[in-house]
Amino acid sequence: MRALFQDDPSRNTASRSEPTDLPEQALDSPEAQIDRWLASLGLAFDPFRFLDAAADPRLSQYLVGHQALETLWGDWPSLVFAPAGGGKSAFRVWLAHACRAGRDGRRIVPIVYALPERVVQAAPPDRQRSYQETILEAAALELLLTLAYRPERYLDLPPFQRRRLASWLAHNLPTPPTHLLAPVQTAQDLSVLSEGYDPTFTMANPPTAQRLQQLKAALADDLPTPLPPRPDTDSRWQTLHELLTDLLGYQAIYLLLDGVDAYPETLNHPDWITEVLNPLLHLLRRWNDQAPGAFLKAFLPQEARPWQRTVEKCLTPKPRVAMIRWNRSSLSVLLRQRLLAASQGRFDRLGALGDPGLYHADERLVGEVRPYPRELLLVAERLFLEHILRAGPEGRLSSEDLEAALAWYAQQPADSGGPAKVGGRQDVSKGTSS
Predict the structure, then answer these.
(1) Which domain holds residue 240?
(2) Most buried among 67, 197, 350, 413, using CB within 10 Å?
(3) Least confident of 13-22, 167-176, 402-411
(4) Preceding peptide of 228 cis, ω within 30°
């Protein structure tokens, strides 16, 4: 651990134990130590581990309510704007979960669509085709996940319709559906399939290995050999619409656009957003002319606000718009909700994990961070790490841990984007973003 933290200028090594003072079992990764320590205090998981909401599989357990939810839930285009770290992806995760869970008794297909590099790098004349191909691939992954979660939705179809659906999947997935299902069946875990598409896909009562095997075998039997030539993209979209609405009983398709601010051009070249996203609007308008029922749900950085006027001209009905704004009160709710979920309802304050001097720890954190969820998660996770540095995976939080975490946070540049992320998680040993 000396090598991991020795370059951290915020660490006061004179007042904190050297790594050699830590128990032998504390010499594993900081994340593993934090997990073991939190378990000893009654937490089922680390509620601050994931800096990126899109990588947090438990997000639906503690999403803080917001007026954006009303803007998103309905058959109309929606635009949600927020600064970096302001919670855009969290609301995208909520919407995807609401669709899959059948909120209000409705059946909506969410197509989770993080703006692909393939689209961004495409030459302008080719960009719309890149949108078509990548949206169809995302739709195919969503549909395969849905069928894997409930195999009977495929197995109970008439043979002709099964063959039609199997062929459509094979034409639009990056690899054959049976190949994608094989590791899911082995692991009995849908996250094997969802990880590269939507890591937050979580549903109760997953299918048994036997049902997955039945689905995989049925798909293998139903796929024609050889597979017919792939139709053009418009025909494949039309077929998808028919399969979803006429065969599977869905009422609408929501395209959940996220990840626009993953590209630095968003900040440096405001016209870039219009240049890259306008072909998507024209595509959706054309597809809806062919078969109505697809609605854009875009989660965008503040820099994309001028694009709203273009959306209003291109799409009908007029889009509904929400700005995500955070204050100290809503951040306090966020902190409480996460602690309640991790403690399984036993407590909702950080003070419950510490000595009496930590009674006001929650107020201190909320009061001293910049008012964005990512900032609060960043310093809260740093608090846990400071405890591990001081005492290892045992004991309770102290005021010393709190002061060390706040001192570390104060040295982070306001535009740094937080610490480096590794695999969708935050690496709190670094002060820059990767």
Answers:
(1) 67-323
(2) 350
(3) 13-22
(4) no
Task: Identify the weakest region by mean pLDDT among 77-91, 134-148, 408-422.
Answer: 408-422
Q: Answer yes or no: do 191 and 77 share one domain.
A: yes
C-alpha–C-alpha distance, residues 338 and 192, integer Å: 25
Total number of domains constituting the chain? 2
> At which of 294, 323, 352 does a domain end?
323
Q: Are 283 and 128 in contact (CB under 8 A)?
A: yes
In a domain, 376, yes or no: yes
Check whether residue 273 and residue 313 sit in a common domain.
Answer: yes
Residue 249, Ramachandran bin (φ over 0: left; ψ between -120 and 50: alpha; else beta): left
End-to-end CA distance of the chain: 21
* Cα–Cα–Cα angle for 264, 122, 299, rounded to 5 degrees: 50
**Separation of alpha carbons 289 and 282, rounded Å:** 11
Domain assignment present for residue 61? The answer is: no
More confident of the two residues 279 and 202: 279
Question: In 102-126, which residue ranges form alpha helices assigned H by DSSP?
Answer: 117-121
Q: Is the pLDDT of residue 411 over 60?
A: yes
Residues 184 and 332 both lie in one domain: no
Burial of 49 (0-12, 13-18, 19+ CB in 10 A): buried
Q: 78 phi and psi, to 5 degrees? A: -135, 140
CB atoms inside a 10 Å sphere around CB 424 = 16
In 307-353, where does DSSP find H-type helix?
307-314, 328-342
Q: What is the mean pLDDT of the chain?
A: 88
At 188, list the tokens: 């009995």
**Same domain? 314 vs 334:** no
Expressed in percent and rounded to 5, the helix, strand and coil fractions of the chain are: 55, 10, 35
| Residue 360 belongs to a domain | yes
**What is the rounded CA–CA span in Å between residue 44 and residue 347?**
12
Q: Are residues 285 and 374 in the same domain?
A: no
Q: Tell whether 382 and 257 lie within a shared domain.
A: no
Give the Cβ contact number of residue 413 at 10 Å.
8
In a domain, 60, yes or no: no
Q: What is the CA radius of gyration of the chain?
A: 24
Given a contact cutoff of 8 angstroms between Cβ atoms, the answer to whether 259 and 84 are in contact is: no
Helices (H), 150-269: 152-155, 159-172, 177-187, 191-194, 209-222, 233-242, 265-268
Q: Are residues 258 and 384 in the same domain?
A: no
pLDDT digits (tens, 9 = 90+) for 33-65: 999 999 999 999 999 999 988 788 888 788 886
